[in-house]
Fold:
Amino acid sequence: MKLNQFYNDLKDSYLFHTVAVRTAEYAAKNPGKKIIKLGIGDVTLPLPAVCVKAMKAACDEQLTKEGFVGYGPYEGFEFLRNAISAYYGSRGTKIKASEIFVSDGAKSDIGNILDLFDRDNAVLVPDPVYPVYVDTNVMCGRKIIYANGNEDNGFLPAPDPSVKADLIYICSPNNPTGAAYDKKGLEAWVKYALDVGALILYDAAYEAFITKDLPRSVYEIDGARGCAIEFCSFSKNAGFTGERCAWCVLPDELVFEGKKLSSMWLRRQSTRYNGAPYVIQRGAAAALTEEGLLQIKKNLDYYKENAKIIGGCLDRLGIYYTGGVNSPYIWLKCPDGLGSWEFFDLLLDKCQVVGTPGEGFGECGKGFFRLTSFGSHENTLEAVGRIEEAFR
Ligand SMILES: *Cc1c(COP(=O)(O)O)cnc(C)c1O
Structure:
């Protein structure tokens, strides 16, 4: 028996562990001090009531012979695929229910989709980045090229025609930078992908946070149906991080080497997966009803208000940042040329505020720092007050 040697190429992820250890050490040394965590990477508000009601009803159905549901379709129940199709339709984006594949998470889909592609493909990943894109490719031995995000491009790298990529990851609005592409920015990527015959893996997990007139789906761009798979999730919009429900879109036009990608994906899913739970899919469908969308909006508005509070503070301090508008994330440049970890310690020591050092998300994150809007209003206001006092 031999092990997969590519696991040796994975970098150990000490980021959140180190943050937790340093915070605990500080708390032990400073018992009276109230620490505020603005590093939270998970939703915190309770689920929309319509979703819980729908899940309870679906549970009760399971007590009856008529209502009992066993294995469901691999690609998700019709009722949810139709609801997702209508969700796109309400924004003027036409996606057929048959092009939608429901699952237990965008994270799993993003990793699992790699089963469809040859190991020799060149992978283009933005830096800084959601670690899943990198690690899932390292695990199967793929070489990775980085597209650097920085202050000059506002952490929205554009395609470089001299780079030859086969698989391209785009996350917009981005985690960790909060930056979101406008139509022109995405058009450039779609054109590049079509020119070189590449496939875009588009992560739209934060589309619901978009307030400005920016694309919420890659399919708002002409030609994207022929070169992009979109991943989306109920995690960040409906707060389903614990429930687990997501979807991906594989349009009919995605045909490579005479093969339809959606057929390959269904073949893959039906071999290795037995579908997301019925009860959870009922809850997810409820999130997309008129009432559900209103309740989702209320929660998102709460987070967005926090983001605005943090952004306003950085504006007044003259600190450069991205995000905060169409995203729960605020990505700031550490003041006075400090390194990510130096700023982490300083912020903890001076303000008792915890965030996430940017360099944990890649080389280009050095000297940057991520704050999130998933805390409470009260804590966010208090943290911002302390930061303004300390860095004035
Ligand atoms: C949270 C998140 C997701 C959602 O993942 P799920 O597995 O559906 O919970 C996807 N992409 C990014 C960048 C995220 O931050």
